[in-house]
Amino acid sequence: MTNTSHPRARKPAAAAKATIARPADTRPAPAKSAAVVASGWMHTARFLTTAPQLHHLPPLDVPEIAFVGRSNAGKSTCINTLTQQKQLAYASKKPGRTQNINLFSLGKQGVTDAVLADLPGYGYAAVPKADKVRWQQVMANYLVTRENLIGIVMMCDPRHGLTELDEILLDIIRPRVVDGLKFLILLTKADKLNREESTKALSIARLQAGGGEVKLFSALKKQGIDEASMLLWQWAHPEGGAAPAATTAEAEAEEPENLDDAEEDR
Ligand code: GDP
Question: Residue 220 CA: which ligand 1 atom is closest?
Answer without folding.
Answer: 23
